[in-house]
Structures are given as C-alpha cells and as structure tokens.
Design goal:
Layout: H1 3-13, H2 15-51, E1 57-61, E2 84-85, H3 88-93, E3 98-111, E4 120-126, E5 149-152, E6 164-167, E7 170-177, E8 188-191, H4 193-204, E9 217-218, E10 220-225, H5 231-241, E11 245-249, H6 252-293, H7 295-303, H8 308-338, H9 343-348, H10 366-396, H11 400-405
Parallel strand pairs: 4-8, 5-7
Antiparallel strand pairs: 1-10, 1-11, 2-9, 3-4, 3-10, 5-8, 6-7
Helix pairs in contact: 1-8, 2-6, 2-8, 2-10, 6-10, 8-10
Length: 406
C-alpha cells in the first residue's frame, strides 16, 4: 500500500474526525475572507468619514481670528484680507505631529452673481496637489485643473453648456462641482494659484476692480495631524515655533469622532486576530483527539518498521489535504455569498442576502477577490498545519512499546 492510499484510507475511515477538521478548515478560510472584506469595508467607510472632517488645525495670520469662525469642520480658511508668506507652510510642515499641510488663499467675495443662488460667492485659490480637505467632496473624482478652470460648490452653476463663467472680467470654465457640504464650501469658487494670479493680473487692467495680493502669499494653511498625535499639542508647537501665526483647532466634537473611528478600526483588526488564534486552538484540540484515537494504529505501523519521519509526514499530509479541501470550500462559498451568486440559495432558505445584513462589506474586483480567496486558503492551510504540528510530532516520537501496551 502506497503512502497516498494510506492517507486517503485514514481520511475516509474516520468520517467524523475528518469531517470536523474539514469543517474547521472551511470555517477558517471563510471567516478569514469574509472578515477581510468586512474590515476593508469598515476601513473604507471610516477613512471616507475621516477625510470629510477636513483639517485638524487651520493656521492663519495673527489677528484674523473671530469666535464664530471656530465652529464646524475646517474645510476652508477664513475670509480675510491678511496674508502670510507661503514659506510659512514649510515651517508648519516641519512641526512634530504634522502629517499633511495644504495652502489656501482667499482672493475676494463676489456679491449677487448670476451663478449662485446665495448672495455671496467666495473666490479661493488652493493647491490641488497637496489638498486633502476639498478633494473628498468630489466623491472619488480626480482633480484636473489646468489654467483657466475652476471647481464650484454645490450652488455654482454656469448658464451655458460650455461651463463658462465670468469672474471680474476673467473667463473661467467650471469643470466640476462639489457634493453638498452645508457650509461655506457650498458657496466657494475654487481655482489654482496659477489661475488666481491670472485673475489678479486681469483686474489690474480694469479701472476700479483691481485686486492686490502680496506675491507668494497665503491666507491659511490647513493642517492634518498624525493619527496618533494630539491636535492641541501640535497647535501649541505651531504657536511656539512659527511666529506671527495663529493655529485654530477644529472643535472637540470632530477630534473625538476621529479618535473613535480610528479606535473602531483597531478594534476590528484585534478581534479578527483573536478569532484566528481561537480557531487554531480549536482545530488543535480536535486534531489532538484524533491522533489519540489512532495511537494503537500508529504503534502497529512503527512496529512494522515505519520510521518516525514517515509517521509524521502521513499525519501532516492528512491535515494538509483536509485543510486544502475545506479551505477551498469555505472560500468558494464566501465568494458566492458576497458576489451575489448566492441570492437564489438565500431566497430558497427564506433568508436575506448578505448584502442586506447591514455589514460594511467591500467587494473588490474579481481578480482581487480571487487573490483574497487564495490568501484565505493559505490562512486555512497554515492554521490546520500549525494546529496539527504539535500532536503529530508528539505521537510520532513515542516509543513503540509504550504505545502498544496502552
């Protein structure tokens, strides 16, 4: 009898034992894949919410703060005629705890324009390359802003099909609109710094409408701190290390919500790790009981001349075959559930489809889903092999006489 036939006979000879290990492997693979999809979905939702909270700190020139400007999420700087050198942005970026910085420049307020239902429109320059506060409100669309183009808040509309709007005698093309925010950003007309310079140059040729802005200046620097940093401590460092500026922190509500979201994500990852460890322990207990049932059989094989390595390899191969089979089944069932092909089965059982359970699933494209399934299969294989390693080593090393007397 070949070793492969012996392995298959041992698997078939104990349906309960093999079925239990097979089921555990399927559960580990399915759990690993489904938990990964849930964690990915939760992470995407949390990240989406974190991004929409705007800046943790807004750095403005000294003397421009008003109490009413400290409310809500910080997506825009203040409407102020005071500026500071753009070089200050590099100083702020060097502060310990600062993760990202992005400049903004308030240019002017447009009154009673035909392009917005609100009486005021704020003309603001920002840097698309470094921006992190405005981009999330484009809902996944990329920022593409060549010279002469603008992005508008939700109230901005062009009266013509080409998207052309006139701003202080300069023709802009409105290329996109932001999602509704419920604040000043809804009334903002956003341009790049290059376009802002062209608008300012155009007003200089007009009588009575000339705008003046100091070259290489900004009116605000938006700051996002590191995830583990305290925004208040970072604001104090900015105040101490950068002269003539005032850091305004976002409200405690937004800081607390950000910390809670980050904590939920860490908790989800921790729970996933705990479940995997418990699964390995559970499989190990099942395999230990299975090995103990076969002590006399293993003793006979040793008495017939089978070496320790062959006994170990046989037990190890059994666990690997069961792990691969069960893991493949678990991964396949999970893919069927999350990809929608399991609708008929759920309907037949009178159950809602998994997408209706309210879980924050993130189903990637098929190629990535198959890659995650292979990762789940490897997790199942590693779990079963690790669980079987200690019992297999122990029983393969025992003395033949001791096993036969039992």
């Amino acid at each position: 009898m070949t070793q492969l036939r012996l392995i298959l006979r041992n698997i078939a000879g104990s349906a309960f034992r093999s079925g239990a290990i097979f089921l555990c492997a399927a559960l580990v693979a399915g759990l690993a894949l489904s938990a990964t999809l849930v964690v990915r979905g939760a992470e995407e939702r949390l990240q989406h919410s974190l991004e929409r909270m705007g800046a943790d700190i807004v750095v403005i020139p000294w003397g421009t703060m008003r109490t009413e400007d400290m409310q809500g999420a910080r997506l825009l700087g203040l409407a102020t005629k005071q500026w500071m050198p753009r070089a200050y942005m590099d100083r702020v970026a060097a502060i310990k705890g600062v993760a990202e910085v992005s400049p903004q420049l308030y240019i002017t307020t447009l009154h009673d324009t035909p392009y917005c239902s609100q009486p005021e429109v704020y003309l603001i320059a920002f840097d698309p390359a470094t921006d992190f506060a405005i981009k999330p409100w484009l809902e996944g669309r990329e920022i593409n802003m060549p010279r002469g183009t603008a992005i508008g808040g939700t109230c901005l509309r062009s009266p013509n099909a080409e998207g052309r709007i006139d701003v202080l005698g300069y023709e802009l093309q409105l290329v996109d609109n932001l999602a509704p925010v419920g604040g000043d950003l809804d009334q903002a007309l956003l341009v790049s710094f290059e376009t802002a310079n062209e608008i300012i140059s155009a007003t200089e040729r007009q009588k009575g409408n000339a705008l003046y802005l100091a070259p290489n200046s900004v009116s605000a620097v938006l700051v996002r701190v590191d995830l583990g940093a305290d925004p208040h401590e970072v604001a104090v460092r900015i105040l101490e290390q950068v002269s003539s500026v005032l850091p305004i922190e976002s409200t405690n509500l937004f800081q607390t919500e950000r910390a809670q979201m980050a904590g939920l994500l860490r908790t989800a990852l921790f729970v996933l790790g705990v479940i995997w460890v418990l699964s390995v322990v559970f499989v190990g207990l099942i395999f230990s009981m299975a090995v103990n049932e076969r002590r006399r059989e293993i003793g006979v094989l040793r008495a017939l001349g089978s070496p320790q390595t062959q006994i170990f390899a046989t037990l190890f191969a059994e666990s690997a075959i069961l792990a691969l089979g069960g893991g493949t089944l678990g991964a396949a069932l999970t893919i069927a559930l999350v990809s929608g092909t399991g609708d008929a089965g759920f309907a037949a059982a009178g159950l809602p489809h998994i997408s209706q359970w309210g879980l924050p699933l993130s189903v990637p494209p098929l190629a990535q889903l198959l890659g995650l399934a292979i990762a789940g299969l490897l997790a199942s294989l590693i779990s079963i092999v690790l669980a079987a390693l200690v019992p297999a080593l122990r029983i393969s090393r025992q003395e033949v006489a001791l096993v036969m007397r039992e």
